[in-house]
Design brief:
Layout lengths: L15 E10 L2 E7 L3 H7 L4 E4 L6 E3 L11 E5 L5 E6 L10 E3 L14 H4 L8 H5 L6 H14 L13 E13 L3 H12 L4 E4 L16 E2 L2 E2 H14 L3 E4 L2 E7 L3 E7 L14 E13 L3 E3 L12 E3 H10 L7 E6 L3 H11 L3 E6 L9 H7 L3 E4 L1 E8 L3 E8 L10 E4 L2 E5 L2 E3 L2 H5 L4 E4 L4 E4 L6 E3 L9 H15 L10 E2 L24 E3 L4 E2 H9 L5 H8 L12 H12 L3 H4 L13 H5 L11 E2 L3 H6 L3 E5 L2 E6 L7 H14 L10 E6 L3 H8 L12 E7 L5 E11 L2 E6 L4 H14 L3
Parallel strand pairs: 1-7, 8-9, 8-15, 9-12, 15-28, 17-24, 18-19, 18-24, 19-20, 32-34
Antiparallel strand pairs: 1-2, 3-4, 5-6, 5-7, 10-11, 10-29, 13-14, 14-15, 16-25, 21-22, 22-23, 26-27, 30-31, 33-34, 35-38, 36-37, 37-38
Helix pairs in contact: 5-6, 5-11, 7-8, 12-14
Length: 748
């Protein structure tokens, strides 16, 4: 009988081997372990083919291990009314009974009729739609658009009502730390030591970031993961620290307002009754520390999108964190040092490993000698010109590159998995969303945070710092500065981190560059030649190239493709990258469900109806109601045989001849207080309110800047510096916003 998880290592990892689980993938039952993501469980079962690309319907496999995954988008079904499309398999945690399905293919994942588009790739180039579907005009809505949407769509939106609950929560803290990797943990420790109220948020199920799969580093004499355990225990011990796991910061807005979404129950086979599926956090922080890490870049060469080709660091993560070997015979293709550690650890796990380094031997660092001592073949000064296989890679085609750039004879390296490492790109998304400036660093070929527009600072890999000891020191310093104190601290880390790489936009090839399809954006099928074509056709602005080619417009928002595209544009227009610029980083950082944004505001709560204290009394007497803003207020009380005119006339006579009762509880109520409260109200209302003594009230008229009536109400002076203001029933929010606008921007 075959092993139920043939690529699961017999020991190691952070998965719980005492808690096996079962889930289905396209109707096929599979085994996993508690602590797996769907991606790691699929790889443990030897499954790499997980989807089809957007335009060409090419077979695609798992590329990464985190939020930057462009390929492994699955339909997830957790039961009645709990189905969602377009979930990243690298983020979804496996649980017992989970039902997963692939998307964007027909009739099956293995045999997709849409793959005919791949044969028509020479026609379906960048801008194809804009050039082709022009005539006849009436065909666009009736023929072209429906066919394109059907062929190029992703998941299918659910039709059943969402059965889940979603929560909203507002919070304030002195220091918000986004990211709980080494820099984030150090920053939180430093801020907490100064007694600050700290919130530490991380999108992973457990804090630690890269420390969770670092099997070689020691920090202050402890293994990296042991240091992480000590740091986390210290933070959790403190009353002034809140640690949020499974929580992604997706938007950074004005006044240090950061929006986060917490996944509360998706990892559970049975969710506790009454618990929300997700919780939207809106946090206002005095200071923010961004420790969001960096994304590894793939290398661009013909056939670089084949299933079984992953990022090198992701292979290391699956190996160390999930005890999964992504293959038996691996080739690592790299232009830098960091992939060597992944290769060494794969070899130590008993896997066959070969390294292909685009750098000449003299440009390599000490990592080269160390890995050769482990018996690993390293081909320096080589390029990758192609790959073999269909639904799974079975070989990498490499060739030496001479000093003049000429490509030598080809050689095929048999393999069943490939690790790519093309350098690193700092995750500057939140810094940029906060209106912070970016600065280009030539030495790391990347944009890093520049001047901050708000009270924020970046630390660690997102700041372009890749050496572990420097990351920890930078995080500690950022946390101390955010806490308005603290001093520098050094961390003893052994061995030093392997860093540095030589940028490569597209690897050299012996084929016609105009025909080779080296993919840059995997989900949207954007190739290097598409980028060059867009520039030749006059689209030199990076924003125009983005829209013309759709590079960076997929669900991963260009996390793995952005820098490659910028480099290609810079080469084509013969300008340095800083002059080309970068695209706009918009919220959300990663996809957010509509449910999390809407929260409880649906059905009866979507447009809630407010009732007055005498609502029951009025209904018992047959009142006819009218909406006044969000309020339901009695309009008139008809008697038998009376229409509205007759009832209103009778009520008016009664008020004149006897007495009437007006229910004013629907009026808006605003409290204005402070030493300048009177001066403020005198400015915001027409007329003079200074004559009001405490205990008196008066009618006040509010005008807009155009002189027209904006609202009116009663101003009551309750004390020397305390006023109670009423507004019209439907105008409370409008008047309050009007007051805040003038208070904050005109008269502050």
């Amino acid at each position: 009988m075959a092993h139920p998880q043939p690529f699961r290592l017999p020991a190691g990892g952070r998965v719980d081997r005492t808690q096996p689980l079962r889930f289905t993938f396209n109707g096929r039952g599979l085994a996993g372990l508690a602590g797996d993501t769907v991606a790691s469980a699929l790889l443990a079962n030897g499954i790499h083919l997980v989807g089809r690309s957007f335009k060409y319907h090419r077979p695609r496999g798992i590329l990464s291990h985190g939020a930057d995954e462009p390929n492994a988008l699955l339909d997830i079904d957790r039961g009645a009314g709990r189905r969602d499309p377009n979930n990243r398999a690298t983020i979804v945690e496996a649980c017992d009974g989970l039902v997963t399905r692939t998307q964007n293919h027909w009739p099956s994942l293995e045999y997709d009729i849409g793959e005919v588009n791949d044969l028509l790739a020479p026609i379906f180039v960048a801008g194809f739609y804009y050039k082709t579907f022009k005539w006849p005009r009436s065909f666009w809505h009736k023929v072209y658009e429906p066919v394109i949407r059907t062929a190029a769509g992703l998941g299918v939106a659910p039709r059943a009502p969402d059965a889940e609950r979603y929560g909203h929560r507002h919070a304030y803290c002195d220091v918000l730390v986004v990211g709980a990797g080494p820099a984030g943990l150090a920053a939180a420790l430093a801020a907490a030591e100064h007694g600050q109220r700290v919130i530490l948020a991380d999108e992973q199920p457990e804090p630690g970031g890269s420390l969770l799969h670092d099997a070689v580093s020691t920090i202050e004499g402890e293994q990296a993961v042991a240091w992480r355990d000590t740091a986390l225990a210290e933070l959790q011990r403190r009353d002034n620290v809140t640690v949020l796991t499974r929580t992604t910061a997706f938007g950074y807005y004005n006044h240090n307002h950061v929006a986060l979404v917490e996944r509360c129950t998706d990892h559970l086979a049975v969710a506790p009754a009454g618990q929300p599926r997700e919780r939207l956090w809106q946090i206002r922080a005095r200071e923010v520390v961004l420790a969001t890490g960096a994304h590894e870049r793939p290398l661009a060469f013909a056939g670089n999108d084949r299933p079984g080709i992953l990022l090198a660091e992701s292979i290391r993560v699956y190996l160390q964190r999930y005890a999964v070997a992504v293959g038996r015979s691996l080739v690592f293709a790299t232009n830098g040092a960091s992939a060597y550690q992944a290769a060494a650890e794969a070899r130590a796990a008993g896997l066959a490993v070969t390294v292909v380094d685009t750098r000449p031997q003299e440009a390599c660092g000490p990592e080269l000698a160390g890995i050769r001592d482990a018996g690993i073949e390293v081909l320096t000064g080589h390029t990758v010109v192609g790959s073999l296989g269909r639904s799974r890679v079975r070989g990498l085609v490499v060739a030496p590159v001479g000093p003049s750039g000429s490509v030598g004879p080809r050689r095929v390296l048999a393999c069943d998995a490939v690790g790519l490492s093309g350098g690193w790109t700092p995750a500057v998304h939140l810094h940029s969303q906060s209106r912070g400036k970016l600065a280009f660093r030539e030495d790391i070929d990347a944009f890093v945070p520049g001047a901050a527009a708000q009270r924020a600072r970046s630390a660690g890999a997102c700041n372009g710092t890749y050496e572990l000891s420097a990351i920890l020191a930078e995080g500690w310093q950022a946390g101390g500065q955010a806490a308005m104190g603290g001093s520098a601290r050094t961390f003893a880390v052994v061995p030093p981190s392997a860093t540095g790489f030589t940028p490569a936009r597209v690897l050299p090839t012996d084929a016609d560059p105009g025909r080779a399809r080296a993919f840059v954006d995997f989900q949207n099928d954007v190739t290097a030649k598409d980028i060059r074509l867009a520039v030749r056709e006059g689209f030199e602005s990076v924003e125009h190239v983005k829209r013309y080619t759709t590079n960076g417009m997929a669900t991963d928002q260009g996390k793995t493709s952005n820098m490659a595209a910028l480099g290609l544009i810079a080469e084509a227009v013969e300008r340095p990258i800083p002059q080309v610029g970068t695209t706009t980083f918009r919220a959300p950082y990663s996809p957010v469900s509509f449910g999390a944004l809407v929260g409880a505001a649906r059905d009866a709560l979507f447009d809630p109806i407010r009732t007055t204290p005498i609502d029951g009394w009025a209904r018992a007497r047959g009142a006819v109601f009218e909406p006044v803003g969000l309020w339901q207020r009695a309009r008139y009380f008809p008697r038998a045989g009376e229409d509205m005119r007759a009832a209103v006339a009778r009520e008016c006579r009664t008020v004149r001849q006897a007495v009437g009762l007006f229910d004013a509880s629907t009026l808006g109520k605003i409290e204005v207080t402070g030493p300048d409260a009177l001066a403020f109200l005198d400015r915001i209302y027409a007329g003079d309110l200074s004559a009001l003594e405490p205990g008196m009230c008066g009618y006040a008229l509010m005008l807009g800047e155009n002189g027209f009536i904006f609202d009116d109400g009663i101003v009551a002076r309750l004390g020397p510096d305390l006023f109670h203001v009423t507004t019209s029933s439907g105008g409370a929010a409008r008047v309050f916003a009007h007051m805040e606008d003038y208070l904050q921007t005109e008269w502050s």
